[in-house]
């Protein structure tokens, strides 16, 4: 049905061009749905040594990442600690200056801009549309400010509200995230971890953003609180039409929250696919190992856990060829010599593996 609709739209567009004599190129519909597209993103941090702090190398935290997010979609970014997930999110928002690559963002008016090339002054209007939820609710809130000042600060900086209007807006935001507006004059230390994360979420929503990067928003919370915050975030996404880049290390959480999942390893993406597709049919050995750690829904099924041997390579000195080959049980000579590229095996299923078509991998429930 979807393919037939796209074909009819294409035929109609071609007919209109023939009638008017226009030679304008019509972009595919999928391009119009993409709100964020990252191409070859790199973030290399210099390693300084000696009295004069000479640069002796670089930590390749992000090394050539390509991804895209469609509007109103939630993309999960998963991987081991230190693989570069958080760095990707911070670099997209220009909290870190990118070493290389392109960050194409489609603004509310439809214009596409390369965020990586914008000046600080040009970035300020985009700060309203692109926001971040930080991982640690304890350190991301200023302890010297009241909740009203924390949530209202973006509104003041962008000159959107002040006085009584500001107080009303803060009250509405607190209500939206399940907090009592009567507590707006309290300080962060007077709230629990879950309540602090809700305060951070209210601050993120203050400017009505279109794109939110959520950096492990529940990892610092008690298990009993995590589900509440996740359900709140999902309901707000649906109500407000938000687009999410959801960074996490727990595939069970990502499956619950996200439409698609991107798997990252030592600064590179190794697989990107729909959430259900990746869990049922992983095509990269590292993704297979992550999926094997997801507990099966049926308690009678014994999970076939894959334990990876060896250590994660240092991002300052990654191995040649495929970065995963020292720990891969399927590796061949080509894996040690040539770096694989992220390619599309099937619709919306991208894999960076030389052997993706040859090997059979197990998914959830296998």
In short:
By secondary structure, this protein is of the alpha/beta class.
Describe this structure as you would to a colleague.
- There is one protein chain.
- This protein has helices at residues 2-20, 29-33, 85-92, 120-123, 147-157, 163-176, 193-205, 223-240, 251-257, 275-280, 285-292, 333-337; strands at residues 34-49, 54-70, 74-78, 100-106, 112-114, 130-133, 211-215, 243-247, 260-265, 268-274, 343-346, 349-351.
- With 366 residues, it is an alpha/beta fold.
- Strands 6-7-8-3-9-10-12-11 form an eight-stranded mixed beta sheet, sandwiched between helices. It has a four-stranded antiparallel beta sheet with strand order 2-1-4-5.
- Helix 5 crosses helix 6 (163-176), helix 5 (147-157) runs parallel beside helix 7 (193-205) and helix 7 (193-205) runs parallel beside helix 8.
- The radius of gyration is 23 Å and the shape is globular.
- Mean pLDDT is 87; it is low at 1-31.
The structure class reads: alpha/beta
Q: Sum up the overall morphology in one term.
A: globular
Total E-strand runs: 12
Question: Poorly predicted ranges (pLDDT <50, ≥5 residues)?
Answer: 1-31
Helix content: 25-40%
- Secondary structure tally, helices: 12
How widely separated are the two ends?
A: 32 Å
User: What is the chain-wise order of helices and strands?
Assistant: HHEEEHEEHEHHHEHEHEEHHHEE
């Amino acid at each position: 049905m979807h393919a037939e609709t796209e074909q009819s739209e294409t035929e109609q567009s071609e007919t209109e061009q023939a009638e008017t004599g226009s030679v304008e190129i019509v972009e595919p519909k999928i391009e119009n749905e993409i709100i964020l597209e990252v191409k070859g993103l790199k973030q290399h941090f210099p390693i300084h040594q000696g009295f004069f702090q000479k640069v002796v190398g670089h930590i390749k935290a992000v090394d050539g990442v390509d991804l895209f997010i469609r509007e109103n979609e939630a993309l999960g970014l998963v991987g081991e600690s230190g693989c570069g997930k958080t760095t990707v999110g911070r670099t997209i928002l220009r909290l870190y200056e990118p070493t290389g690559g392109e960050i194409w963002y489609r603004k509310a008016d439809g214009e596409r801009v390369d965020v990586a090339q914008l000046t600080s002054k040009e970035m300020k209007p985009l700060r309203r549309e692109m926001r971040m939820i930080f991982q640690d609710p304890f350190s991301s809130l200023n302890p010297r400010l009241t909740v009203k000042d924390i949530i209202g600060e973006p509104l003041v900086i962008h000159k959107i509200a002040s006085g009584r209007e500001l107080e009303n807006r803060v009250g509405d935001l607190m209500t939206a995230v399940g907090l009592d507006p009567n507590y707006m004059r309290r300080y962060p230390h007077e709230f629990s971890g879950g309540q602090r994360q809700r305060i951070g979420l209210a601050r993120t929503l203050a400017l009505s953003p279109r794109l939110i990067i959520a950096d492990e928003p529940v990892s610092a919370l008690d298990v009993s609180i995590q589900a509440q915050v996740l359900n709140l975030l999902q309901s707000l996404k649906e109500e407000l039409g938000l687009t999410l880049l959801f960074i996490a290390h727990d595939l069970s959480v990502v499956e619950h929250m996200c439409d698609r999942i991107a798997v990252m390893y030592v600064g590179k993406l190794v697989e990107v696919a729909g959430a259900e597709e990746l869990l049922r049919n992983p095509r990269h050995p590292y993704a297979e190992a992550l999926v094997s750690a997801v507990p099966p829904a049926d308690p009678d099924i014994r999970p076939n856990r894959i334990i990876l041997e060896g250590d994660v390579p240092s991002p300052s000195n990654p191995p040649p060829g495929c970065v995963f080959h020292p720990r891969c049980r399927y590796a061949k000579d080509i894996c040690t010599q040539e770096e694989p590229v992220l390619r599309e095996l099937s619709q919306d299923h991208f894999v960076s593996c030389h052997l993706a078509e040859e090997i059979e991998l197990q998914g959830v429930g296998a």
